[in-house]
Specification:
mainly alpha
Length: 203
């Protein structure tokens, strides 16, 4: 087990007295999720790749906006963090299932990616709840390597953006499959590292 000394400042520490469902940020999360999923469903129904790309843009833009608003208004909560994580999975699933429906030849790469993102990455992301931090964005106080691979700005860009952009721009299933498999391996290594750290049992 890796020894982890957790020293938190006010920005990083969760505040139980501040926890609530409805904040400006969570309203944005709900709105962007409903909008993105509705657009993705409409895209599949109409057979429109353009509309599906708009759904992806709404998901990404809204995901950036809700986090920025939460930090700006000092409304970061663990409830909001969990809601954001699960909403991301719904938006991603709507987009990628829609893409597999419109371009079935990409399905092998898409479903490897979904296995990584919907299951392993989801477990990694909600693991922050085992420590008194506000969100995975502050996981560097627990383990900087895991944070760098998964929740730093470059880590998020590689984990979420690279695969989708490559598939949309090139349409190369085999290259997409290689990237999705590499991400899956990286997430599995992250999971092993997380388990070596050990999830603390709350008092």
């Amino acid at each position: 087990m890796i020894e982890t000394a957790v020293v938190l400042d006010a920005k990083e520490r969760a505040r139980p007295e501040s926890e609530r469902l409805w904040t400006s940020a969570t309203v944005i999360t709900f709105v962007r999720t409903i909008a993105s999923v509705a657009l993705a469903a409409s895209a599949a129904y109409q057979g429109s790749l353009k509309l599906l790309v708009i759904a992806l843009i709404v998901y990404w833009a809204g995901d950036s906006l809700d986090g920025a608003v939460a930090r700006w208004r000092d409304e970061e909560t663990r409830i909001g963090g969990v809601l954001d994580i699960f909403s991301d999975r719904l938006c991603a699933a709507a987009f990628y299932v829609g893409l597999a429906f419109l371009q079935p030849d990409l399905s092998p790469a898409i479903f490897v990616y979904l296995a990584e993102f919907m299951v392993i990455d989801c477990f990694l992301s909600i693991s922050y709840l085992a420590w008194p931090i506000k969100s995975p964005n502050y996981f560097y106080v627990i383990d900087r390597t895991l944070w760098r691979w998964n929740w730093s700005h470059p880590g998020k860009a590689v984990n979420s953006g690279l695969f989708a952009i490559l598939l949309l721009v090139t349409g190369w299933m085999w290259v997409g499959l290689v990237i999705a498999t590499a991400l899956l391996v990286m997430k599995c290594i992250s999971l092993v590292r997380l388990l070596r750290i050990g999830l603390p049992v709350p008092r």
